[in-house]
Amino acid sequence: MRARASLLLSYAACATHAKRLRLMTFNIHAWRDASHQDNLERLIALVNAVQPDVLCLNEALHPFVAPPPDHPYWAEVRARRGHGLEPPRGSKPADDREESYLRRLSKATGLPHCAFACANEEGSFFGAIPFGNAILSRHPLRDVRRHVMGVTRADLTLGGQARTEADLEPRAALAAVVELPGGAVGVCSTHLDHKAEELRERQIDEAIAFAASSFGGRAHFLCGDLNTFQRVDLAPEQWEAVAQHYNAMGWPPPNEESSVLRRLTQLGYTDTLNLCQQHADESIPASPPHPPLTCWSHKPLFRLDYVFFSPGGQEVPSSDVATGDAENLGPSQLEILSHRTLESTVSDHYPVVVDVVLHDVANAT
């Protein structure tokens, strides 16, 4: 899906610097595809083909090195018996600078600046290996911060999908300032709960407050697997397929509206794909009437992966997170060059790639 658009802001003076950025967000399914086959080499090839400036990852294990394909670990995790599973010998390298998959990905793709935010030191259903988000960048990162969105036993009752304590995991947001040539922009990668919209709504409020505090209320992207969707984004037959899936799983009918997406919009964020659709260049073929689905790669049902942009200038929401140094992060005008969802079997999600130009905007004095 390609389009060209501008997000116009009511500031008196125009930019003096333009910063071009290719951002890619991808849930990498803990370094495996939908069939739990090691995906590192395919992931490296895909990222090298896309050549992003910034790569945001969800469901990253770190430090991690995949055990041999015939190791019982894979069968245990595939059968959803991975909670608390001790990792095989050698799969948690003591020195992650060269051995770990995250470092190898960073080195092999020319994205040398790397940050990781662990959501749960005890691991996830992929085993007892630190689990969270990562940001890899071609350009230096500064002011890297992590925020963990904790859970309690009371959250077991949220939503209509039955869950156990093992299935109730903390999630994290990772924020960093990317030092682009001619300026900087904030990037926040997050991953929300997979079962309860009520919990996701609380988490997105935390992530928004964390991002605003980290970037001083200035221009930034917030992206990742938000695990939320809404009926308006799906064709009738797609919505029916979702409803049938929920029924087959014994769940209540899916929510037709997303409170997560509503909150983002209310607080000044723009979905970059919607921006493309609303202001498509007439020289480019019209976009499909409904956004591409991003999950799952073996049976696409949902759009769960997003890139949102906040131009800056908003009041910073109250937060327990300390305010970051927002130097060189001013209000910005965003020019969308393209928004693509790439069909790929590297993971159980599709990656989303956005090309933008950021123009700094200064208030008149």
Structural overview:
The chain is 20% helix and 27% strand. It has 7 helices and 13 strands. Strands 1-12-13-2-3-5-4 form a 7-stranded mixed β-sheet, with helices on both faces. α4 (197-214) links the parallel β8 (183-191) and β9. α4 runs parallel beside α6 (259-266). The protein is globular and about 55 Å long. Residues 1-16 and 316-328 have low confidence and may be disordered.
Properties at a glance:
6-stranded mixed β-sheet; single chain; 20% helix; 13 strands; alpha+beta; Endo/exonuclease/phosphatase; 365 residues; 7-stranded mixed β-sheet; catalytic activity; disordered N terminus
Secondary-structure map:
Layout: E1 5-7, E2 18-27, H1 40-50, E3 54-61, H2 72-78, H3 101-108, E4 113-120, E5 131-137, E6 141-149, E7 171-180, E8 183-191, H4 197-214, E9 220-225, H5 236-248, H6 259-266, E10 270-271, H7 272-278, E11 305-310, E12 332-341, E13 352-360
Parallel strand pairs: 2-3, 8-9
Antiparallel strand pairs: 1-12, 2-13, 3-5, 4-5, 6-7, 7-8, 9-11, 10-11, 12-13
Domain Endonuclease/exonuclease/phosphatase: 24-349
GO cellular component, one term: membrane
GO molecular function: catalytic activity
